[in-house]
Amino acid sequence: MKIRRTLVALTAATSLAVAGAPAASAATYPEPLNQVMDEMVKYGGPQAPNLLLIPAALSSLGILNSLLVMATASSRA
Length: 77
What we know:
The protein has helices spanning 2-25, 31-44, 53-76. By secondary structure, it is mostly helical. The protein has a domain at 28-75. The chain is flat and about 70 Å long. Keywords: Membrane, Signal, Transmembrane, Transmembrane helix.
C-alpha cells in the first residue's frame, strides 16, 4: 500500500513539473521577436502569432508542388 501511494505521489509531482515547465518559458523569444509577438498579441489576441506559420506552410507547399512537377516531368520523358 505504501508503494502505491509513493508511486502516485511521484507521478503527480512529475506531471506538475512537466505541465508547469512550458508555461514558465512560453514567452521567451529573442528581444526583437519578443516585441513583434507582444504587438501581435495586443492587436490580434493570443492566436495572432500563429499567422507567422502561414508563410512557412505556403513555402512547404511550394516545395512539394515543385517536387511533384519534377517527378511528373521526369516520368513522362
